[in-house]
Each structure stands twice: as C-alpha cells, then as structure tokens.
Amino acid sequence: MATSRKPQVDQAAPKAAETAKKDKKPKLVRDSFTIPKSEYEAIAGLKARALKLGASIKKSELLRAGLKQLAALPDAAFKQALADVPTLKTGRPMAEKPAAAPAAKPATKAAPKAPAATKAAVKPAVKPAPRPATPAAKKSK
C-alpha cells in the first residue's frame, strides 16, 4: 500500500523574514548645529501650532518633516528655498561679554588630568634622610 506524503513547507523562512523587517531599525545619528534665535523660536511656534491641531511633535520630528518637504520640491523651488536662507558663520557662538564687568577669563572646561604616574616614575632621585627617633620609640627598644 502506497502512502502519499504532503510536501513539507518550511514555516521558519517566512517568520524569519517577517521578524527581520520588524527588528531592523534605522541607524540614528546625533548632531548639533547653530541657527539664528528667531528660527529657533519658529520651531517652538510650529510645535505649538501642531499641538493646537492635536499632534504632539518633537523638535527632531518637526525638522525631519521639513526635510521631507524640501526633498519633494522640484529643483527650481528647492534652489529658491536654499537662496532664501542666509549663510551663517559655522562654529559655536561667542559668549557675550558684559560691558560693566571687569575682564574675566572665559569659562572653559577644566584641563584633563594627566594619567596616574607609575611607582617607578614617582620615586625621588635622592633617598630622604631617616627621621629622628621619637622619645616614645626609644623607650620601646
């Protein structure tokens, strides 16, 4: 008597592909930049506007939404949008100096400490003289 067997279907392959899609998260990059104060305040205004519309949004999400909108523009409109933004001097802004205060050293981070020296480097070049014996030490001898 011949028995017919059903071909076995590998159930693990579709599940593995499905979990790989779920587990794959985009790699995040942390960055910092300088923008004019008025544009920084505009971010807060747009966040408040989104909140009024019922959407709570983070600053990074707002910036990413703006990037998507710029990416969708045709070349001519994109070029105009770039021309509308003034170029800024890169780097950290200078600290504002108070006019009436005497000249003070600008606040900086403390210099990093040197690595701990090894015992060989700490030994003095000349052997110190022995200490004179105290009266209590003389009595115990």
| Fraction in helix | 40-55%
Mean pLDDT: 76
- Terminal residue distance: 108 Å
- Enumerate how many helices there are, as a single number: 6
Strand composition percent: under 5%
The structural class is mainly alpha
H and E order: HHHHHH
Nearest-angstrom radius of gyration?
35 Å
Give the overall shape, derived from the CA principal axes: extended
Please outline the major beta sheet. none
Number of strands: 0
Note poorly predicted spans.
none
Task: Outline the structure in words.
The protein has 141 residues and is mostly helical. The chain has a domain at 33-86. Helix content is 43%, strand content 0%. It is built from 6 helices and no strands. The protein has helices spanning 12-23, 37-52, 59-72, 75-83, 119-122, 135-140. The protein is extended and about 95 Å long. The model has no long low-confidence stretch (mean pLDDT 76).
